[in-house]
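Run log // design_07
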């Protein structure tokens, strides 16, 4: 009797899960690609690249100044007293520390600028994907990422549709 009940329960589970899988409709979107290929994303990346280039020039200039000071220190080393060498070495350390702080500050600023620029774009894309998902009666739309989806059939990829719509193509919301 217990075996019969167990078999009936097991059969019910298989029947139920078979029905659930039949109704499951999945898709995925490569959000990074949408951002990179969308008009808004391209504009944001161009602005960020200008800032990045400006910062790189400033960083390179400061780096060259430190190298020039260091080279000068090497050339003067024979003529300087021990106290003067110590003072110059401390000055070099101070400049290197200032450079490191400047570099970290610019990196942090770039990250903040990127987050600020991407937030409205990502919000728009997510809203659009949610609309596509509910209109297409998808059970779930996943974000494609190298670490999240190991394999998916190309027919499940909504990325091109999202890019078209986010750029104002037919059916854009």
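design_07 sequence
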């Amino acid at each position: 009797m217990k075996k019969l009940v167990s078999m009936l329960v097991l059969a019910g589970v298989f029947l139920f899960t078979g029905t659930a899988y039949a109704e499951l409709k999945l898709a995925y979107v490569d959000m990074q690609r949408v951002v990179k290929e969308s008009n808004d994303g391209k504009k944001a990346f161009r602005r960020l690249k200008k800032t990045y280039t400006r910062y790189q020039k400033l960083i390179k200039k400061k780096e060259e100044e430190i190298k020039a000071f260091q080279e000068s220190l090497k050339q003067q080393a024979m003529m300087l007293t021990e106290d003067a060498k110590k003072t110059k070495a401390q000055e070099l350390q101070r400049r290197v520390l200032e450079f490191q702080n400047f570099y970290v500050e610019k990196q942090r600023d770039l990250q903040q600028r990127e987050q600020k620029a991407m937030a409205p774009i990502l919000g728009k894309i997510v809203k659009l994907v949610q609309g596509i998902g509910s209109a297409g009666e998808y059970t779930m739309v996943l974000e494609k990422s190298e670490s999240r989806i190991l394999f998916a059939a190309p027919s499940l990829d909504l990325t091109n549709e999202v890019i078209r719509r986010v750029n104002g193509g037919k059916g854009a919301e």
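The longest helix spans residues 82-135.
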